[in-house]
Amino acid sequence: MTRKGILATYEKFLPLTEKTPRLSLCEGDTPLLSLRHLGTELGIDLLAKYDGLNPTGSFKDRGMVLAVAKALEEGARAIVCASTGNTSASAAAYGAAAGIPCFVLLPAGQVAAGKLAQALLYGARVLAVRGNFDRALELARLAAGEREMALVNSLNPYRLFGQRSGAWEICDELCSPPDWLILPVGNAGNISAYCAGFEFYREIGRIDKLPRLFGVQADGAAPLVRGFEIDTPETLATAIRIGRPVSADKARRAVEVTKGQFLSVTDDEILDAQRALASGEGVFAEPASCAPLAALRKLKAQGKLPEGIRVVMVLTGNGLKDPDAVIHRIPLPEEIDGTWEALSAALEL
Ligand SMILES: *Cc1c(COP(=O)(O)O)cnc(C)c1O
Prior knowledge:
Elements: H1 6-9, E1 32-34, H2 36-42, E2 45-50, H3 60-73, E3 78-82, H4 86-98, E4 102-107, H5 113-121, E5 125-129, H6 133-146, E6 149-151, H7 157-174, E7 180-184, H8 189-203, E8 212-218, H9 223-226, H10 248-257, E9 261-265, H11 267-281, H12 287-301, E10 310-315, H13 324-327, H14 340-346
Helix pairs in contact: 3-4, 3-7, 4-5, 7-8, 8-10, 11-12
The structure holds pyridoxal-5'-phosphate (PLP).
């Protein structure tokens, strides 16, 4: 099957009209990898939905393609978003592909270098707001209301609609849902979208049960685990550094109806998981994306991970976006003289 992008592949399941432009950067259709080493270690059948292989390197492309296509259809003059990084990269890319101006509001000094470079290079007008993500989002909503701009944050219902495609692809490939689906939670849109995607497939008879949904937050930014909003969220996993998740209610419902759970992990546990995933499986995901693996390891250590279940972990973003998160925490390359003697001494297995 050739890659066609989300809009063409799931045309019948998405709110498209004849007038919706069939925008595509060939998003979606990402690999479902079997993680054999880590799975054996954890005593489960562990699969990873490798969404860091989307066009801009994160799952955000799944919903952005639909949100921007709809903005074009509805005659918006520009698109605007607030972002911890990946939303802006995606909005800027689809804005460029669609030929519509894009404004991006970022929390100043809190965005990973790779993501900032993307937004700038794709030609968005990037504004660094003094304040955190939650404040940037308030301002983006204001901008959308005051000007004829389409807000393409996950408040935009088309974003979550497009993100349902992640659940659909997993079911299409496995022919049945996994026992558990585990993913990182920031603004809580993606977990809500997965739930809606699985529920839709159950409604049309493609699957007969829902997977249990597990949402993982960082300890310093865990409003859904704690049960109250956090004014100053802190974590090196910048993609989930959010204290007031917009889709909190939907996410709580998702966890409730699927009998799942919210969990949290420390930044150190996230970095350990990131290394284990890279060195154990050859998969480099950004810190936020590794929170689920950290949580699975923690559950295993606590004896709370059932043996033999099939678990799909969503790797939401590509590790190359944020090398700074790891580069200071791993040993730097060993420097040697440019001689065979020096090299030969270093080639011990
Ligand atoms: C956006 C993002 C998240 C959080 O997703 P929400 O829908 O905001 O919960 C997690 N990981 C990565 C890499 C992201 O870009």
